[in-house]
TrEMBL record:
<comment type="similarity">
    <text>Belongs to the binding-protein-dependent transport system permease family.</text>
</comment>
<feature type="transmembrane region" description="Helical">
    <location>
        <begin position="132"/>
        <end position="155"/>
    </location>
</feature>
<keyword id="KW-0812">Transmembrane</keyword>
<dbReference type="InterPro" id="IPR000515">
    <property type="entry name" value="MetI-like"/>
</dbReference>
<feature type="transmembrane region" description="Helical">
    <location>
        <begin position="96"/>
        <end position="120"/>
    </location>
</feature>
<feature type="transmembrane region" description="Helical">
    <location>
        <begin position="161"/>
        <end position="181"/>
    </location>
</feature>
<keyword id="KW-0813">Transport</keyword>
<dbReference type="Pfam" id="PF00528">
    <property type="entry name" value="BPD_transp_1"/>
</dbReference>
<feature type="transmembrane region" description="Helical">
    <location>
        <begin position="220"/>
        <end position="241"/>
    </location>
</feature>
<feature type="transmembrane region" description="Helical">
    <location>
        <begin position="34"/>
        <end position="53"/>
    </location>
</feature>
<keyword id="KW-1133">Transmembrane helix</keyword>
<keyword id="KW-1003">Cell membrane</keyword>
<feature type="transmembrane region" description="Helical">
    <location>
        <begin position="268"/>
        <end position="286"/>
    </location>
</feature>
<feature type="region of interest" description="Disordered">
    <location>
        <begin position="1"/>
        <end position="27"/>
    </location>
</feature>
<dbReference type="InterPro" id="IPR035906">
    <property type="entry name" value="MetI-like_sf"/>
</dbReference>
<feature type="domain" description="ABC transmembrane type-1">
    <location>
        <begin position="97"/>
        <end position="286"/>
    </location>
</feature>
<protein>
    <submittedName>
        <fullName>Carbohydrate ABC transporter permease</fullName>
    </submittedName>
</protein>
Amino acid sequence: MTAVTPAPVPVIDRDLPARGRRRPRPVRGSRPGWIVYASLAAVLLASIFPFYWSLLIGSGDASTVRDPNMSWIPGGNFFANAAAVMGDPAVNFWPALLNSIISSALIAASVVFFSTLAGWAFAKLKFRGGPWLLLFVVGTMAVPMQLGVVPLYILFSELGWTGQLGAIIIPALTSAFGVFWMTQYLRQAVPDELIEAARVDGATSFRTFLTVGVPAARPAAAMLGLFTFVSAWNNFFWPFIVLDRQNPTLPVALSLLQSNYFVDYSKVLAGVLLSTIPLLVLFVFAGKQLVSGIMQGAVKG
């Protein structure tokens, strides 16, 4: 038999450009243009300016806000104004700060727990009247809080809870928006086949919720918890009505700086900056985990 000699393979010089071969063209829109960067810079400056203005006034004295030749460089009185706010006996800064931390943390934890539980029920459990009940929950968001202030105050007055911290925590333990948020997220994030597999393995409904629903809901729950904490921290209307000056939250306590005949806006804005420091610390420590959780949920989805 005659051996068949394979044909020699031509050697291609990779250093020389191949004739007739088209180079891949860059996809348009793969990199943002200058319009995007300019828009982001404008939004960033608009977001930072209120903080810079507060620092500018809060680091001056009582005449800074009315000075037509005011310097745009912060002064050196911020720590003195901050110390005056924290040491003012009419403000009760430290008890108010503790009340804000406790109430905001409890409200955020409660809203995340109940919203995740209710969202799981609406999204993955089939029961009679579920869509109509969810529609009713969403419809309650159209009712402004101001309509329920009078009966709510009468209720807590009869219970003897006016002036106590529980009066602002109990009405905010649940959130219609949180239920809707978690329902929409869990409906798309958790496949029904995963739930059926857990049931085949003998898991109960609550066990399935803990092992399947809770891990899948972490990104949305982190967002909901952060937004709820910030909303409860900045809430002024209801705490101002139901709490007294001896047991206020931080926004209510700082409003007492403007109750005098002469308002020193340097101390007022110094107090405003002090009230935003805990939120900035929260965003610094939770921001990276929050973004990583969102990206992880997006990849899994």
